[in-house]
Design brief:
Elements lengths: L3 E3 L2 E3 L6 E5 L8 H14 L3 E6 L2 H4 L19 H8 L3 H13 L3 E6 L2 H9 L5 E3 L7 H8 L5 E4 L5 H13 L5 E6 L14 H9 L2 E6 L5 H8 L4 E5 L17 H18 L19 E4 L14 E4 L10 H4 L21
Parallel strand pairs: 3-4, 3-10, 4-5, 6-7, 7-8, 8-9, 9-10
Antiparallel strand pairs: 1-2, 11-12
Amino acid sequence: MKDIKIAHHTIGLNHSPFIIAEMSGNHNQSLERALEIVDAAALAGAHAIKLQTYTADTITLKGAYTIHDENSLWNGKELHELYQQAYTPWEWHQPIFERAKEKGLIAFSSPFDETAVDFLETLDVPAYKIASFENTHLPLIRKVAQTGKPIIISTGVSSISDIDETVRLLRKEGCENFILLKCTSTYPATAENTNINTIPHLSKLYNSIVGLSDHTMGIGVSVAAVALGARVIEKHFTLRRADGGVDSAFSLEPDELKALVDETKNAFLALGEISYGVQQAEEKSKFFKRSIYVSKDIAVGDIFTNDNLKIIRPGDGLAPKFIDVVIGKKAKVSIKAGTPLNWDILL
């Protein structure tokens, strides 16, 4: 499984996780706020900021559907209305991307139709993201694959045959630089329905770098995913959930994004390698293991017993495993209480 480069960043099993802050519609139709989100993502240590490139008319039609679901954040809204509220105006992309570059962030987007790909190519994006709801839109995926750019694909609301068909198409088009993200497309998702044990299986199945598009609250699921092999973590991001917005309820705030960056890196570093024995970092701690000490004053010739020996810290004396050997032996010299036992003072 080879590493994948997106702009200046390398993604792979031996590299710490690539953290994507998903802006989505959390700009609340304000370019100024969008730029503030970029700044905050950079300050929190994210590696990338991601947009979504569509218009209400490129993603649906007026009158096509109204959401009727009391459990949905978008209950009662017509899809066209929702996307009109959530979309990022295309003329904002360039200033957002330029601000990201100034801040050291990689900026790219999810296109939702072929015209969006054409537009994003004019901005020379370094990669593409395919959203879960588009991962069976094979004409779109073919067009993205033909750009030759790395592709990150969410696998929500997909059967294994859906994923397989998409991967086969990518490879047919010569695209091997793809990353598959485990995803549960509910908003928010729960820990129970995220099933991150799928991550190593997905990686092995397609010999692919994998990650997690995480719609749960908090960062615990993402940290656990890194331990299972995820090397890309995507999280929706906002300045303040209290400001509202179509995705705000399940988005991270800046301090939470920083915690995500820090703790996923710690999870990666903690993996290390299979290791037994005393590590170099533990050498000084060996002193505080237990050993056998004389617990009462002993005269020459006295017999060692459970009454005058004790297994205590520190580790200057004989190892505890020798206690049955020394019980019944005689003292060669007189010994003060508090003396570590050693072979030289035994007869």
